[in-house]
Amino acid sequence: MPEAKVIRSIQVEWFEPPLHTKSLAKNLITPENTETNNISLRLFRMDPGGTAEPHSHKKVEHIFYMINGQLLITCNGKNYILNPGDAIHIPPGVQHSAKNTTNQPAILIVINTPPQD
Question: pTM (2 decimals)?
Fold first, then answer.
């Protein structure tokens, strides 16, 4: 029978994701550490000047939820500014990138479904 599982963020290691600069992430909910197969939850920190290079996914859709700071998100050439409390949905196939153009770290939650391409 499936069971709930608590993941303590403080116990999860930070790592630098591919195609990112001045950025760190923690995989909080993944198929590797829970019984999920359909979704993942990541905590991101992007320092001032940090970037995520333009890329897209065949299957993965994202939801970004801003906790602190500000990010410039570009999707298929259109720019969006995310502030605390803002969320954006990025469907599969949409080329997207991110940049922290401020002097404060940006903190956000990223939900992926499925967890990866």
Answer: 0.94
- Are 69 and 84 in contact, with CB atoms under 8 Å apart? yes
Domain, as residue range, for 53: 14-113
Work out how many domains the chain is built from and give that number.
1
* Closest to 68 (Cα-Cα) out of 101, 98, 105: 105
Residue 111, judged by CB atoms within 10 A of its CB (0-12, 13-18, 19+), counts as middle
User: Residue 72 has which token pair?
Assistant: 């410039």
> What is the spatial distance between Cα 36 and Cα 33, in angstroms, rounded to a whole number?
8
* Tens-digit pLDDT profile for residues 92-109: 999 999 999 999 999 999
Task: Specify if 85 maps to a domain.
Answer: yes
Largest CA distance in the chain: 48
Strand partners, 90: 62
Contact by Cβ (8 Å): 67, 98: no
**How many angstroms separate the first and last alpha carbons of the chain?**
28
Q: Give per-residue pLDDT as tens, 57-68.
A: 999 999 999 999
